[in-house]
Design a protein that fits this description.
The structure holds 2 protein chains of 2 kinds. Helix content of chain A is about 5%, strand content about 65%. By secondary structure, chain A is mainly beta. The longest helix of chain B is centred in the N-terminal third of the chain and has 18 residues, at about 1-20. Classes of the chains: A mainly beta, B alpha+beta.
């Protein structure tokens, strides 16, 4: 299955590899970007450094847990981010990103009558598309989280709007609605409305999913 | 001889004034919709030794860079910085107004 997907994705990625730069999972040229995404079952910390306007290398640590708490995973990985394509329009911008990592996965499955611990190598290639104006936002991403006998593919769709247009040096509030699923860890599609605050120096989101579990995300470029 | 010296000093100060007139480069930029993402433009512009002040206006798609007195900044440098920050310059014009005035005028139009 991975082979079949790679057969489709690799030529597409090769064709699109070009173009410079920012907005999304990396900062501007020669900058660091730190990011965090935290809720009860998914906690991710990530930092990368942009070596060119369109390429960044980073490290990430992720904790994942099943809804019923019978499975838990910890992943430490090295991640490469690349801007595949950018469309700059008069009042909008769209981006297509590749993000992929490789790292070590420590897992624990608590089956009835027997616990099972394991260590594996995990690879995590994925793509993200986003479209944004000063008033609306849309993003879709799909990332494979694969190791031998493990499939925790992550799919997310986000859409939202800003409450009003704001100046460059003022904080702008947004309402964002996200739907996401982590394969093999949850059968549900997690829906989370979030308040997003964007300033030129920070980006934070806070919300609560439909199971009343809190969620907090941030990004910081320096 | 004295008159010649005075005339030289006068003309030097006159041309000196012309040379130190405010120069601001105004670039219209496509794709600049988010302050968090556009911060790279401002940070990179401010690292230039020639830059006196920078103003970014998302709604007007404008980046204005005021050049220090007696210094020059090429349009190509501005275009390259904007491009490397992820955006596209569609046009550039020169202004003799300082950034503070351009900012005040645009904010007064709201």
């Amino acid at each position: 299955m991975i082979y079949n997907r790679c057969k489709v994705l690799l030529p597409l990625l090769t064709m699109l590899l070009s173009q410079p730069t920012t907005a999304g999972p990396m900062g501007f040229d020669e900058s660091f970007m730190a990011m965090g995404d935290f809720n009860n079952n998914w906690r991710e910390s990530f930092i990368n450094y942009a070596i060119t306007p369109g390429d960044a290398f980073g490290i990430s640590a992720t904790y994942m847990r099943a809804d019923d708490k019978t499975k838990s995973r910890t992943l430490e990985e090295i991640i490469y981010t690349h801007l595949l394509r950018r469309w700059n329009m008069p009042h909008a911008q769209a981006n297509l990103w590749f993000q992929g990592g490789i790292g070590t996965l420590q897992g624990k499955d608590e089956d009835i009558g027997k616990d099972h611990d394991f260590d594996k190598i995990m690879v995590t290639p994925g793509v993200q598309f986003d479209y944004e104006t000063t008033r609306i936002y849309f993003q879709v991403s799909h990332r494979l989280y694969r190791a031998s006998d493990i499939n925790h593919d992550y799919t997310s769709v986000r859409a939202g709007f800003s409450f009003y247009e704001s100046d460059y040096d003022k904080t702008q509030p947004w309402l964002i609605l996200e739907a996401r699923n982590m394969n093999g860890l949850s059968d549900k599609i997690e829906i989370t409305p979030m308040l997003r605050l964007i300033d030129k120096s920070f980006f934070v989101e806070a919300g609560m999913n439909t199971d009343y579990k809190p969620r907090f995300n941030f990004m910081f470029i320096f | 001889m004295k008159k010649l010296l005075l005339a030289s000093l006068f003309s030097a100060s006159l041309f000196g004034n012309v040379a130190i007139a405010t120069q601001t480069i105004k670039a219209n930029v496509n794709g600049m919709v988010c302050a968090f993402c556009a911060q790279g433009i401002e940070k990179k512009m401010r690292t230039l030794s020639q830059t006196k002040d920078v103003y970014v206006n998302l709604k007007q798609r404008l980046v204005a860079v005021e050049v220090k007195d007696g210094q020059t900044l090429s349009n190509d440098t501005v275009k390259a910085i904007v491009k490397n920050a992820g955006y596209e310059v569609t046009s550039i014009e020169m202004s003799e107004h300082p950034v503070a005035q351009i900012k005040a005028e645009l904010e007064a139009k709201k």
